[in-house]
TrEMBL record:
Transmembrane segments: 31-50
Region (Disordered): 160-179
Ranges annotated as biased composition (Basic residues): 170-179
Any single Gene Ontology cellular-component annotation: membrane
GO terms, biological process: protein maturation; protein targeting to ER
Entry keyword set: Membrane, Transmembrane, Transmembrane helix
KW Isomerase (keyword) present: no
Name under which the protein is recorded: Related to Inorganic phosphate transport protein PHO88
Pfam short name (any one): Pho88
Organism of this sequence: Hanseniaspora guilliermondii
Length: 179
């Protein structure tokens, strides 16, 4: 299933669940907190297990890929593409996968801290449902989960951004005549 469609499904399902629950009842809020923490703990344990499996398998096969800058990086640089826009990188599968797991964990920690701030400081309770489901869903949909938990073959590098190349016109068009 397409992750974008499933994200919309998770959002609609969590909104439906939240409308059915009494979000002012402290007992229900405690259950939501337990749900949120347990799902995030499960996600963290899966990432840790994947990291252990990467180190255990120690696949030293080299991969080559071009480090493409994201559109946001180009936007913040004023739209200027420098000479290092596409740098070819050679890494082992172990190094690449560990780098990917570390990036996933960094995003996981950031999400967790933001949700903790929203819930504890701003007293939001409704996002506990959606943010309890989203991390485990993202974890299960990632290629590292497919490779190290499900044992499927995956193509590296993961999720390269395909940017269309701009073609320059081969010849100039004649100027329009003014009447």
């Amino acid at each position: 299933m397409n992750p974008l469609v499933s994200n919309i499904g998770v959002m609609l399902l969590s909104n439906y669940i939240c409308k059915r629950l009494d979000m002012t009842d402290p007992k229900i809020i405690d259950y939501l907190r337990i749900f949120y923490v347990s799902m995030n703990l499960l996600t963290y344990l899966i990432y840790t297990y994947i990291k252990v499996q990467i180190k255990k398998q120690n696949n030293l096969t080299t991969i080559k890929y071009k480090n493409q800058k994201s559109p946001m990086e180009l936007l913040f640089k004023g739209g200027k593409e420098d000479d290092n826009a596409e740098v070819e990188i050679v890494k082992s599968v172990v190094d690449y996968d560990l780098e990917q797991v570390d990036a996933l964990l960094k995003g996981f920690y950031t999400s967790w801290l933001m949700m903790a701030g929203m819930h504890l400081y701003m007293k939001y309770t409704q996002p506990l449902v959606q943010q309890g489901i989203s991390p485990i869903k993202a974890c299960v949909e990632h290629d590292l989960f497919k490779a190290y938990i499900l044992g499927q073959e995956v193509q590296r590098p993961f999720g390269q951004i395909a940017q269309p190349k701009e073609e320059k016109p081969k010849k100039k068009l004649p100027a329009a005549k003014k009447d």
